[in-house]
């Protein structure tokens, strides 16, 4: 028996004792009994898995195990669960409730580790629980009291700090080294006709997840090949257009949703032909890995989005300068230990989903929130950690691609919408390239562009453009066809910040799966000066929501991109099936003009020369903020880039103006009016 197995046996015995009779004050007995019982369930599940349960059990038996592991946060059960901070704080007090709700959540994050036979990950969380329990039991035994909030916070703080090193090393290794092949083996070796393979990940598997996998299994080989080829070829073209040498790389990071394995398998074969081996790491809800409400890595169905939202800022329980320094220290150490693989890392190839029921979160006072000082520390960590990553993964030598497909939750016409999405992702890029070149030629004459809304949209923006020294050989805008951002359909630039002023308004938009109603931002010299929305009753709540999830706790962000989306086919597909509010940013950004706040599209590769198909160099790759990399690098980047799109039916006009004041209308009343772009209106007319 190994040392870890001995620790496991000991902690298991202790947990069974706690489940039977927790010797703590009555106020806490239910919490410790129920959370101990959940860990006994983990133990039982782990023993079943070691005995080959996944290969011999029926589909119904496997479904039952999966449901049991996630049941406590599903539907109405969440309203009674200690994972819900409202419940924990209501029964245990605000401060102690937050801490103990976090503890239960961190224990729950260990579920997938059972399936990877990562015993240590399970043991350290169980031991943490027992340590916290012992603190309560000892206080009760000694003087009938209870530990202080500071006592429990201290235990949890040092768990987070002490294990940061091993956890960060693990995550970094799984991202960079194909030797970590848990998910890759499932993709390459599974029988997709038997949906039991989905449950081997340890992720939550919903009825929709099974439906997606089953649907993918019905598609003919040629359609799967078309999907995979579009995805992998977009990745390759990204290196070509970015003037980057893919032959120097060996690793591609594959991100996907469960159910898409058949396409992923075909794509991995395509990547192999390019000389690339895949890595695939799990998106986790552990305190060590979570990144706000975003998903990074592969993942299954989300059992409860409100649960994830409630705990997205749990780090507020511990975040201080010491912890930031610790996290940065271990991140650098992890990359130093993996620097050879980091140099061979080509970047992520991402398959996104869309079609889930729109989620508008409920703000809870019981949920953790970052203080003003912690917001600054969070922003500081975000910038410094990104700097470290790019020291080892050269931004000028890496690329990416993103493609999206619908999930069955989108509705009864799922298969129709799926087919339409394939068409959208494989539109004739040559036709778009020609019409977009016409738009770019017009914009290159301009000093600035005015964008105005209609039908209640209050947008009124003046966007300054980069001046061209040699218009015969230079351009401001990139002609974006189907490469890194699939599907085809936009021209974009990094605008000049100074002189870019006005209001950006969208009546309804979804950013990173969160809904914003009447999102409004005011810009002064290209930077956010004011912001609001109407999601919540108070202005304070609305601003806090935007600051946390769009500004990522920065006080302000610059406009990193101005673009004109041209994919009217995607726009009309959204209208036809009434799914505009379910499109991911990836497709939505192509259905109207959009503005990204944060870094530019050329972040950390500004000095790499990029050309359009006509041979003109795209020279608007910088702005006055990104140029700070040459004098004060800590202020040049933000590690975020969020696109906000104005749909055509809220778009009054886009008009370019040259230095003499001549006007060049591009869009009026939501339609393209520029000569040579009539084809972009055909989808409207159909």
Portion in strands? 15-25%
Q: Averaging pLDDT over every residue, what do you get? A: 95
Multimeric organization: single chain
Helix content: 40-55%
- Measured between the Cα atoms of the first and last residue, the distance is 70 Å
What is the general shape? globular
Number of strands: 19
What structural class is derived from the secondary structure elements?
alpha+beta
Any low-confidence stretches, pLDDT <50, length ≥5? Answer: none
How many helices does DSSP assign? 24
What do these coordinates show?
It is globular, with a radius of gyration of 26 Å. It has three domains: about 5-155, no CATH class; about 175-400, no CATH class; about 445-685, no CATH class. The longest helix has 25 residues, at about 25-50. Helices cover about 45% and strands about 15% of the residues. The chain is an alpha+beta fold and about 675 residues long. The protein is built from 24 helices and 19 strands. The strands form four sheets. An eight-stranded antiparallel β-sheet has the order 12-11-10-6-5-17-18-19, covered by helices on one side. A five-stranded antiparallel β-sheet has the order 8-9-13-14-16, with helices on one face. The model has no long low-confidence stretch (mean pLDDT about 95).
SSE inventory with pairings:
Elements: H1 3-20, H2 26-50, H3 53-56, H4 59-70, H5 85-92, H6 94-108, H7 111-115, H8 119-143, H9 149-162, H10 164-176, H11 182-189, H12 207-218, H13 221-241, E1 251-255, H14 261-273, E2 277-279, H15 305-310, H16 321-337, H17 339-344, E3 345-354, H18 372-392, E4 401-406, H19 414-425, H20 429-443, E5 448-453, E6 460-464, E7 474-475, E8 478-480, E9 490-493, E10 496-511, E11 514-524, E12 527-532, H21 539-549, E13 559-565, H22 568-577, H23 585-588, E14 593-598, E15 617-618, E16 641-645, E17 651-657, E18 663-668, E19 671-672, H24 682-685
Parallel strand pairs: 1-2, 1-3, 3-4, 7-15
Antiparallel strand pairs: 5-6, 5-17, 6-10, 8-9, 9-13, 10-11, 11-12, 13-14, 14-16, 17-18, 18-19
């Amino acid at each position: 028996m190994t040392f870890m197995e001995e620790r496991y046996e000991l902690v298991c015995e202790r947990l069974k004792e706690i489940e039977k009779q927790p010797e703590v004050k009555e106020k806490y007995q239910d919490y410790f009994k129920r959370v101990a019982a959940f860990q006994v369930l983990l133990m039982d599940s782990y023993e079943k898995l070691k005995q080959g349960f996944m290969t011999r059990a029926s589909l119904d038996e496997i479904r039952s195990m999966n449901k049991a592991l996630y049941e406590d946060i599903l539907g109405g059960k969440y309203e009674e669960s200690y994972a819900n901070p409202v419940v924990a704080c209501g029964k245990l007090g605000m401060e102690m409730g937050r801490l103990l709700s976090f503890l239960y959540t961190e224990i729950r994050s260990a579920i997938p580790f059972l399936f990877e036979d990562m015993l240590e990950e399970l043991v350290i969380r169980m031991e943490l629980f027992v340590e916290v329990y012992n603190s309560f039991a000892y206080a009760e035994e000694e003087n009938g009291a209870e530990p202080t909030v500071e006592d429990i916070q201290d235990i949890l703080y040092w768990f987070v700090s002490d294990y940061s090193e091993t956890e960060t090393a693990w995550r970094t290794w799984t991202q960079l080294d194909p030797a970590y092949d848990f998910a890759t083996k499932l993709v390459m070796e599974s029988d997709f006709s038997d949906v039991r393979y989905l449950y081997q990940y340890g992720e939550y598997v919903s009825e929709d997840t099974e439906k997606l996998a089953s649907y993918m299994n019905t598609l003919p080989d040629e359609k799967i090949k078309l999907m995979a080829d579009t995805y992998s070829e977009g990745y390759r073209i990204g290196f070509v257009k970015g003037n980057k040498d893919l032959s120097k790389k060996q690793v591609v990071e594959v991100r996907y949703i469960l159910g898409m394995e058949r396409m992923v398998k075909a794509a991995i074969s395509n990547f192999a032909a390019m000389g690339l081996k895949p890595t695939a790491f799990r998106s986790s809800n552990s305190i060590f890995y979570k990144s706000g409400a975003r998903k990074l890595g592969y993942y299954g169905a989300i059992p409860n989005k409100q649960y994830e939202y409630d705990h997205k800022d749990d780090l507020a329980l511990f975040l201080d300068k010491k912890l930031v320094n610790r996290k940065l220290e271990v991140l650098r150490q992890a990359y130093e230990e993996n620097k050879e693989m980091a140099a061979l890392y080509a970047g992520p190839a991402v398959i996104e989903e869309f079609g889930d029921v729109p989620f508008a979160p409920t703000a809870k006072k019981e949920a953790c929130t970052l203080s003003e000082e912690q917001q600054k520390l969070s922003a500081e960590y975000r910038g410094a950690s990104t700097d470290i990553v790019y020291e080892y993964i050269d931004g000028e030598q890496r690329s990416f691609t993103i493609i999206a497909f619908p999930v069955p939750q989108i509705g009864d016409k799922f298969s129709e919408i799926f087919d339409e999405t394939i068409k959208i992702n494989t539109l004739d890029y040559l036709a778009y390239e020609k019409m977009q070149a016409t738009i770019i030629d017009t914009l290159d004459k301009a000093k600035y562009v005015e964008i105005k809304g209609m039908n209640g949209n209050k947008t009124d923006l003046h966007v300054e453009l980069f001046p061209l020294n040699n218009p015969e050989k230079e351009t401001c805008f990139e002609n974006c066809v189907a490469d890194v951002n699939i599907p085809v359909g936009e021209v974009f630039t990094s605008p000049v910040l100074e002189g870019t002023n006005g209001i950006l308004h969208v009546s309804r938009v979804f950013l990173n799966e969160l809904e914003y109603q009447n999102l409004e931002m005011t810009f002064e010299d290209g930077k956010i000066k004011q912001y609001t929305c109407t999601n919540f009753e108070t202005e304070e709540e609305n601003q806090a929501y935007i600051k946390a999830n769009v500004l990522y706790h920065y006080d302000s962000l610059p406009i990193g991109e101005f673009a004109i989306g041209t994919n009217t086919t995607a726009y009309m597909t959204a209208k036809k099936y009434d799914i505009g509010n379910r499109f991911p940013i990836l497709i939505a950004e192509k259905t109207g003009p959009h503005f990204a706040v944060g870094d530019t599209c050329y972040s950390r590769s500004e000095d790499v020369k990029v050309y359009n198909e006509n041979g003109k160099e795209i020279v608007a790759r910088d702005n006055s903020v990104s140029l700070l990399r040459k004098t004060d690098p800590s202020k040049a980047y933000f590690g975020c880039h969020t696109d906000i799109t104005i749909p055509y039916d809220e778009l009054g006009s886009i008009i370019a103006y040259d230095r003499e004041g001549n006007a060049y209308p591009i869009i009026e009343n939501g339609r393209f009016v520029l000569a040579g772009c009539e084809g972009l209106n055909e989808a409207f007319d159909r």
